Amino acid sequence: MNSEKQRIILWSVAISIVLLVVKFYSYVLTGSNAILTDALESIVNVVASFFALYSIRLSAVPRDRNHPYGHGKIEFFSAGIEGTLIIVAGIFILYQSLNSMLFPQPLMELPLGMVLIGFSGVVNGVLGFVLQKKGKELNSITLEADGKHISTDAISSFVLIFGIAIIYFTGWNVLDSIISALFAFYIVYNGYFLVRKSVAGLMDESNPKSINKAVRILNKHRQKNWIDIHNMRVQQYGGDSHIDLHLTLPYYYDLVQGHDCVHEVEEVLEENLPGNIEVFVHADPCIPDPCCHYCQVVNCPVRKFPLSRKIEWTAENMSQNQKHYHELGHLNINLQKKK
């Protein structure tokens, strides 16, 4: 998997370097500040792709004593670096735009410049699509971040062509700086969200997509003796995940039966989630009242109360640090009376 990630990002590096040369050549021909904006962002593409390559290689290093969860979080750091570079580039582009408004320069060879920028936009569009698709398949935030950035670059190139065409046919050269300034704000906006996603991953912020995916898998393979699952946490380490959860089992199970159930839950998650999955399961014994009311074990030898209803597993109730009996309103009333 990591070899495929490295091969994809190497292609990204090579293509980004070629397009960087094409865009700067286009700027030299035209003298357009808007095209310079696009070229400067391509420098960020190249630097970010190199750092992405480094982070993917480092994330592939096996866990060791100093990094018991592996090196996967470097991918979040990589995405943060890329987002920061995008923001810096956007600020510099804004400065350059304001400077050009005060000191305008003549524009030349705009049709040829549009052709070159159009070519780079098509190539970036295809590359960005492939990177985002592979990033989702391989569960790599680095590939996704790089793909999103390059796709943004492709969109900006096509908008840029439209803007340059207006300048060419109207002769309003001041639009060159205005378009460049608008691109700068758009670039900063996208960079912010990359940094935000990076910080969320480094801070182990709950990821609804990861949790919902795990919940769907557990619901699909749910066994009747898995009375409930709660206190579930999903932590991402780049393309890998670490999952903690509490599994409630019949209290009369011996150690071997309990171990087998725990192993079943681990296998279900490890075999159906992308990347390397590490699962830690804490086994809890059931409590006859109230667990009997939603326990689906057939012919339970110690059942004290009939099954009332099946409780649906959701990301919300499986993430809470309590068994699911609190969802049965009438049981809460009974429990309060007993207290």
**What can be said about the biggest beta sheet?**
3 strands, mixed
The tally of strands reads 3
**CATH third-tier fold name of the largest domain:** Alpha-lytic protease prodomain-like
Helix vs. strand class = mainly alpha
Supply the CATH architecture of the largest domain: Up-down Bundle
Regions with pLDDT < 50 over 5+ consecutive residues? 330-339
Radius of gyration, Cα only, in angstroms?
27 Å
In DSSP terms (H or I, runs of 4 or more residues), the helix count works out at 11
Q: What is the subunit arrangement here?
A: single chain
Cross-sheet strand order for the largest sheet: 1-2-3
- Strand percent estimate: 5-15%
- Termini, distance in Å? 55 Å
Order of helices and strands: HHHHHHHEEHEHHH
What coarse outline follows from CA principal-axis ratios?
elongated
Whole-number count of domains: 2
| Residue share in helix | 55-70%
Kindly state the mean pLDDT as a whole number? 81
InterPro entries: Cation_efflux, Cation_efflux_CTD, Cation_efflux_CTD_sf, Cation_efflux_TM, Cation_efflux_TMD_sf, CDF_Transporter
Pfam family, one: ZT_dimer
Main location: membrane
Family: Belongs to the cation diffusion facilitator (CDF) transporter (TC 2.A.4) family.
